[in-house]
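Support request, priority: normal
Reporter: lab tech (M.K.)
Component: structure prediction queue

Hi team, I submitted a job for ATP-binding cassette domain-containing protein from Pedobacter gandavensis yesterday, and the status page still shows it as pending. I've pasted the exact input below so you can check whether something in the sequence is tripping the parser. The sequence length should be 330 residues. Please let me know if I need to resubmit or if it's stuck on your end.
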Amino acid sequence: MKEKIISVKNISKQYQQEQASGIHNISFDIHKGDIIAIIGESGSGKSTLLKCIYGLLTLDEGEVFYQDEKVWGPDVLLIPGHKQMKMVTQDFSLNIYAKVYDNIASMMANTDVHHKHQKTMEMMAHLHIDHLKDKKITQLSGGEQQRVAIAKALVTDTSVLLLDEPFSQVDALLKNQLRADIKRIAAETGVTVIMVSHDPADGLFLADELLMMKDGHLIERGKPADIYQQPKHIYTARMLGNAVVLNQEEANKLGLEVKDGHAVFYPEWVELNNSWNSRRFEVKDVYYKGFYEELLLERHGVKIRAIQLNRGVHKKNDHVQANIGRFLSL
Ligand SMILES: Nc1ncnc2c1ncn2[C@@H]1O[C@H](COP(=O)(O)OP(=O)(O)OP(=O)(O)O)[C@@H](O)[C@H]1O
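Reply from support: The job had stalled in the queue. We restarted it manually and it finished. Here are the results:
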């Protein structure tokens, strides 16, 4: 069992008197070396939760602990938080006039100049930015600046790295690279990462554990594969996998037995085949998705979506046999 590094105990934070804002009664533990992704729609409280863990906000209720030490907020400390925790925000907070090397080195005291130099060089190598050492921040791309910001955060023997929307400034190509980098850095350094993202794919790719936020509440948590395959909420299935959600009447029309609630399934759970129990659907539309196509299918006025890996097999207006192999009653 991994060692517990952060404990969040019943924390609440409301902005003004608006019930809808902030976060409500949230508790969980984080284990050393894990990557945690906080996922949720805009306004669900992701950033507020991250700030509360970091000690940036005064809590209305509850406590946050780094190991056994309480993380104090701005009501108690001039520089709130815990020295083992560092946050990289979307604006990176770099000194844009200074060189990359100096940005990183400036985080350490001058008491041991040799150590300071060594640590800076080591961290730049980890982040693959050693070749940028003498460049000014203004000469760097968004992705490069982000690596400098992470190096700066980690150089002081940080144990917990908090990342607020780490991929918001970069294009799709670089995003894949940065996701892989964060995974590699966490594995190499043993740092615990807590990140906030509005893109669930980040969490599915990177995280050991996902925390799903909705309306300021932590509604479920779990390993990406578990939470994807067995979500407890329609919201989670929708956020993580573009799920098809049918109400009871629609589900019954397709022969799916749902007592109350909804039938929920992902397009990849729909099998296009000719098995005895498959049903005939009309292809209403075909969406090109690169290495696969998504088919919009209809039967008895109910629309569902399915995945077609071999392009062009079924076309618009065709009739296909489809079997909803698995669905969840939510
Ligand atoms: N400083 C503030 N003052 C008042 N209300 C706030 C403040 N910051 C956030 N809120 C409100 O609290 C709720 C949660 O906001 P938060 O920024 O934590 O959500 P989020 O999930 O990070 O959203 P986004 O993905 O859009 O950044 C929202 O309703 C928001 O309007």
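The mean pLDDT is 92. The longest helix spans residues 172-189. Let us know if anything else looks off. Ticket resolved.
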